[in-house]
């Protein structure tokens, strides 16, 4: 076991970990800004639908971030892919909310506790994250 190798690369690990966690927080915060209700208050009050939707968005972002870390050539590359993932998640949300389901307000459904809608939206976010993550390798 080459201990020196691990000691020499530990700084890179810390830098990428810090940047990845920061990107995760930024992405989650942007998602929060786009939500018309307080996710924190809704989850605190036991709204499972909101928790599932938020967890799915966060999981979709993490999937992309892990792929970006694996395939990025530098920190700038990682940051670019992270923001691409955030933008894609936002666009997807807008398409689902306003194009595919024009007659139903999904935000109101989730805020009202519709677990099926919350699970669906969270699941779609994860699936899109998987697709984006797979394409980062090119």
Automatic annotation (TrEMBL):
This is DUF350 domain-containing protein. Pfam families: DUF350. It comes from the Bacteria. It is a multi-pass membrane protein. Keywords: Cell membrane, Membrane, Transmembrane, Transmembrane helix. Signal peptide: none annotated. One of its GO terms (cellular component) is plasma membrane. The chain crosses the membrane at residues 13-34, 54-73, 79-100, 112-136. Belongs to the UPF0719 family. PANTHER family: UPF0719 INNER MEMBRANE PROTEIN YJFL (PTHR40043). It is found in: Cell membrane. It comes from Halalkalibacter akibai (strain ATCC 43226 / DSM 21942 / CIP 109018 / JCM 9157 / 1139) (Bacillus akibai).
């Amino acid at each position: 076991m080459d201990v020196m190798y691990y000691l020499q690369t530990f700084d890179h690990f810390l830098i990428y970990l810090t940047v990845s966690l920061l990107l995760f927080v930024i992405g989650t915060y942007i998602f929060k800004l786009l939500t018309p209700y307080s996710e924190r208050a809704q989850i605190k009050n036991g709204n499972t639908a909101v928790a599932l939707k938020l967890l799915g968005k966060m999981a979709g972002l993490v999937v992309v971030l892990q792929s970006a870390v694996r395939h990025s050539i530098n920190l700038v590359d990682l940051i670019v892919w992270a923001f691409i993932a955030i933008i894609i998640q936002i666009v997807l949300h807008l398409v689902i909310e306003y194009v595919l389901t024009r007659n139903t307000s999904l935000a109101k459904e989730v805020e009202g506790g519709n677990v099926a809608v919350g699970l669906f939206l969270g699941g779609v976010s994860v699936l899109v994250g998987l697709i984006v993550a797979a394409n980062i390798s090119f």
